[in-house]
């Protein structure tokens, strides 16, 4: 295998005609890390990945791979491997022939080719199926062949474009775990494009949240979840209460209710972001905030409550479900205890 390489994306902008798709994107992807581009559909993730692969040239900015300026290099000169969403295996070829295909085109000599095909199939655990045709494999196995085909070219960077989206939900988590395990074992720099936050959270060491062609925030998944820097990131990564109000007298005032805040917050209009699990429901005793149940949704492992507090404040709270703890009915009075250390204050 080749030495993994880091990828530096510097001030990259790109458009299709007059439509700007990427707007001044800068990212530093470290050698050996599993990095995700996460964002809603149309945010520019695939376009950015394709520029790293060499399919297209930025209108401005640079892309460095392993410290070398690759901005104007064609794909075949970059030594990056791209695995598509639609893995497009040749149906008439065996697994081994599919994996060998790219090596033949690169004129890798026969003996070396056989060795690399074998090694790549060993890595994805499919060596014993090398004589089968794609139709004789499960969706997850076909995806592993597509990955083996890319690993066989011994890339410095592995690029994955929504690699799990064609698998049914039951298979996805398993194939994802295998992919992460493989990446850790190889220590291969990997960039994953996905719109699925759970996928990015589970796989990535770090990720960038993109929207409208811009990078909004970069960090470890738990860092972004715990400390979102904007309403978009707070709302895109899981459920968040995004409450508009004012910081006044050391508390947050919204909809006729007073919520606690961490100390030292400057007064003025703001948005308070609170995860549903940061609100604890008290059936009796003291609480920060009296409220009423509007709706309870039983979701198996937890119950999601929609609550009303003050005059017009709607809050979502989640409580782990345990046997014997019946969901509260609509109309039930509850107390809400809010842990101020879990609150994030955003600019209005
Ligand atoms: P994502 O991968 O985040 O869903 P894409 O990078 O595929 O986003 O697309 C970003 C934007 O660029 C979208 O608005 C899309 O419609 C537009 N776009 C993508 N490919 C083309 C193309 N070949 N020609 C014109 N516009 C395109």
Automatic annotation (TrEMBL):
Pfam families: ABC_tran, TOBE_2. One of its GO terms (cellular component) is ATP-binding cassette (ABC) transporter complex. SUPFAM superfamilies: MOP-like (SSF50331), P-loop containing nucleoside triphosphate hydrolases (SSF52540). InterPro entries: AAA+_ATPase, ABC_SmlMolc_Importer, ABC_transporter-like_ATP-bd, ABC_transporter-like_CS, Mo/tungstate-bd_C_term_dom, P-loop_NTPase, Transp-assoc_OB_typ2. GO terms for molecular function: ATP binding; ATP hydrolysis activity; transmembrane transporter activity. The keyword ATP-binding applies. Transmembrane segments: none annotated. Keywords: ATP-binding, Nucleotide-binding, Transport. One of its GO terms (biological process) is quaternary ammonium group transport. Residues 7-237 form the ABC transporter domain. It comes from the Bacteria. PROSITE patterns: ABC_TRANSPORTER_1, ABC_TRANSPORTER_2. This is ABC transporter ATP-binding protein. It comes from Teichococcus oryzae.
């Amino acid at each position: 295998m080749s030495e993994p390489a880091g990828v530096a994306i510097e001030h990259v902008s790109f458009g299709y005609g007059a439509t700007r798709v990427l707007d001044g994107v800068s990212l530093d992807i470290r050698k050996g890390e599993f990095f995700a581009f996460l964002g809603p559909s149309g945010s520019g993730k695939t376009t950015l990945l394709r520029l790293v692969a060499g399919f297209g040239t930025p209108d401005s900015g640079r892309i460095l791979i392993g410290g070398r300026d690759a901005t104007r290099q064609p794909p075949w000169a970059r030594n990056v491997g791209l695995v598509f969403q639609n893995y497009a295996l040749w149906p008439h070829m065996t697994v081994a022939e599919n994996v060998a295909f790219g090596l033949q085109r690169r004129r890798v000599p026969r003996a070396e080719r056989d060795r690399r095909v074998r090694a790549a199939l060993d890595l994805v655990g499919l060596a014993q199926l090398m004589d089968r045709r794609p139709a004789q494999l499960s969706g997850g196995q076909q995806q592993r062949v597509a990955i083996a085909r890319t690993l066989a070219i011994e890339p410095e960077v592995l690029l994955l474009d929504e690699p799990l989206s064609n698998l049914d939900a039951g298979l996805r988590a398993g194939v994802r775990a295998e992919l992460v395990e493989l990446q850790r074992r190889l220590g291969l720099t990997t960039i994953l494009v996905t719109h699925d936050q759970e996928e990015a959270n589970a796989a990535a060491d770090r990720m960038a949240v993109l929207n409208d062609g811009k990078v909004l925030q970069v960090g470890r998944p738990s860092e972004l979840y715990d400390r979102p820097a904007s309403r978009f990131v707070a709302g895109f990564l899981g459920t968040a209460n995004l409450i508009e109000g004012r910081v006044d007298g050391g508390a947050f005032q919204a909809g006729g209710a007073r919520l606690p805040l961490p100390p030292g917050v400057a007064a003025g209009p703001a948005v308070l972001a609170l995860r549903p699990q940061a609100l604890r429901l008290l059936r009796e005793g003291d609480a920060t905030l009296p409220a009423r149940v509007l709706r309870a949704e039983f979701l198996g492992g937890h119950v999601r409550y929609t609550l009303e507090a003050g005059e017009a404040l709607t809050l979502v709270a989640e409580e782990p479900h345990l046997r014997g703890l019946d969901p509260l009915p609509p109309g039930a009075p509850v107390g809400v205890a809010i842990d101020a250390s879990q609150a994030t204050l955003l600019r209005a």
